[in-house]
Amino acid sequence: DQERRTPLHAAAYIGDVAILELLILSGANVNAKDTVWLTPLHRAAASRHEKALNLLLKHSADVNARDKHWQTPLHVAAANRATKCVEALVPLLSTVNVADRTGRTALHHAVHSGHLEV
């Protein structure tokens, strides 16, 4: 579309694991970025779809990908109260203290959104 979102972005956002798998096996780029540099992994984290997120991770999605605001999928998961997504991402990161463009870490975003479980 005009935002350069791919069908993989859409499938990740709605959490359709069957379509995700089909698209990936058909050659879709798991690290495709839209106009604001969001990847399908960011989209799955934003919509709290743990199964979609795990499938993307299984197919080598970049856990360190940053959007135009320098936010990683962990920032997005924390801000959107996606506890299971946070739990899936954290073990794959060398550090969780990566700051976005405003200097906020995932923990800052979690607290700001009232997500104290993180």
Question: Any overview of this molecule?
Answer:
The protein has a single domain (7-112), classed as Serine Threonine Protein Phosphatase 5, Tetratricopeptide repeat, CATH 1.25.40. Helix content is 46%, strand content 0%. With 118 residues, the chain is mainly alpha-helical. Helix 1 packs parallel to helix 3 (40-46), helix 5 packs antiparallel against helix 6 (83-89) and helix 5 runs parallel beside helix 7.
The count of β-strands is 0
- CATH class value: Mainly Alpha
- What is the fourth-level CATH superfamily? Ankyrin repeat-containing domain
Kindly report the CATH topology: Serine Threonine Protein Phosphatase 5, Tetratricopeptide repeat
The SSE string, one letter per element, is HHHHHHH
Alpha plus pi helix count: 7
End-to-end Cα distance, whole Å, is 34 Å
Please give the CATH architecture. Answer: Alpha Horseshoe
Write the layout of secondary structure elements.
Blueprint: H1 7-14, H2 17-25, H3 40-46, H4 50-58, H5 73-79, H6 83-89, H7 106-112
Helix pairs in contact: 1-2, 1-3, 3-4, 3-5, 5-6, 5-7
